[in-house]
């Protein structure tokens, strides 16, 4: 009896470990794909703009994007009206930019919710953004019912350009000498 219980516990542990291993493999694959996508986007930005990606990308821009998104939600809440401040295309682009920086996937359903408008309106804007070449859809290989959306290289470059120009008075790219002086 005791031996049977021990076998059952070991089997349950083995099943949990297999599940964890599968999750780790899936995460590793996503990171590998994400890294290749990030490299592809950086190369595309560099080709399209003629600038180096290091001079365009800055880690604080994802924080600025989050603040912008949160500010939009706060505005609607304070004024108690979603109708006054509707701009679903911008909300979708912000959400996808943040997701790209966090290496997170966004389903079409999630993008619709994040846009704070009815799903039909959000879907219409997703289609418009896709036709403009700012985002792209990709099917979930594990679930045929799910579709993800992400910024295209052009969309990502446009968001970088926006935050680069919008934050030029706030963000000064680090000068190693200033960082060294600040550390002392």
What is the element layout, followed by pairings?
Elements: H1 2-49, H2 53-56, H3 60-78, H4 88-102, E1 106-107, H5 108-114, H6 119-131, E2 135-139, E3 147-151, H7 153-166, H8 176-183
Antiparallel strand pairs: 1-3, 2-3
Helix pairs in contact: 1-7, 3-4, 5-6
Protein name: Winged helix DNA-binding protein
Keywords: DNA-binding
GO molecular function, one term: DNA binding
Keywords:
single chain; 184 residues; mainly alpha; Arc Repressor Mutant, subunit A; 8 helices; 70% helix; elongated
Compact description:
Keywords: DNA-binding. With 184 residues, this protein is mainly alpha-helical. Helix content is 70%, strand content 7%.
Walkthrough of the structure:
It is built from eight helices and three strands; from the N terminus they run ααααβααββαα. It has 184 residues and is mainly α. Strands 1-3-2 form a three-stranded antiparallel sheet. Helix 1 packs across helix 7 and helix 5 (108-114) crosses helix 6 (119-131). Mean pLDDT is 77; it is low at 51-55.
